[in-house]
Design a protein that fits this description.
By secondary structure, the chain is an alpha/beta fold. The protein contains 7 helices and 13 strands.
């Protein structure tokens, strides 16, 4: 996670100098700003992963700056520094999703702990995003969401019957596999043990589903069964 960027906003440049080396143990890039307005401009320019800011700053105080950023960015990690006299101001900050507020003079161990917490949350977010939802594009305006089992046409959900949904779910488990009539019948009828195999029921189901999706999305492989044929596979 050394590739991270941290924006340090503090009007006292001497204080900044004291802590920069400590911060650089955790992030690759440190950008500096010295008042609230300059800090906001730097935030827009650098899009940092973490912001370390003081409450008491000229032009725009730290809490006002944090609120301004939070209006359109819920993800950047914010650590606030404050003096004992300013602690009551933090009652306003509950909705700002702060990583931590640190009392001045800043304790190095507390700063390190706050940075570690911020980095841990960033890592967790990135890890969770590795599990991306699989989407199949059937044509320019028709999308099949495999994980949620929903079909959309022009951003409007299309209602599917239970068996239509099961059929699309089965096909999207492997878009390169030819599913036999029996495999399809067995999958869509797995909760109906008394139902007898009937290939015509599979053909009828495919015919019904083709009325809701492009016909070419399901290929009939003569003598074998059917194969899924989406335009492309996407991820969110």
């Amino acid at each position: 996670m050394k590739s991270l960027t941290l924006l340090y906003i503090e009007d006292d440049q001497d204080i900044q100098e004291i802590y920069i080396d400590c911060i650089k143990e955790y992030v690759e890039t440190v950008q500096l700003a010295h008042d609230g307005e300059e800090g906001y401009e730097a935030y827009l320019l650098y899009k940092p992963d973490i912001i370390l800011l003081d409450i008491n700053m000229p032009k725009l105080d730290g809490l006002s700056l944090a609120k301004k950023i939070r209006q359109h960015d819920k993800e950047v990690k914010i650590i606030v520094t404050t003096s004992y006299a300013q602690q009551e101001n933090l009652l306003q900050a509950i909705e700002l999703y702060l990583i931590k507020y640190i009392l001045k003079p800043i304790d190095f161990n507390e700063l390190k702990s706050s940075l570690e917490k911020a980095i841990h949350e960033i890592e967790e977010t990135k890890e969770s995003r590795k599990t991306k939802e699989v989407i199949f594009c059937l044509d320019k305006e028709i999308l099949w969401y495999k994980d949620t089992e929903k079909l959309y046409v022009n951003n409007n959900e299309v209602k599917l019957t239970k068996n239509e949904r099961r059929l699309l779910t089965l096909f999207s488990t492997d878009e390169h596999k030819v599913f036999t009539f029996f495999e399809i019948f067995d999958y869509i009828s797995h909760d109906d043990f008394d139902k007898e195999y009937d290939a015509n029921q599979v053909r009828a189901l495919v015919k019904l589903l083709r009325k809701k999706i492009p016909k070419a999305s399901i290929i009939n492989v003569y003598g074998e069964g059917y194969r899924f044929n989406p335009l492309k596979k996407l991820s969110t």
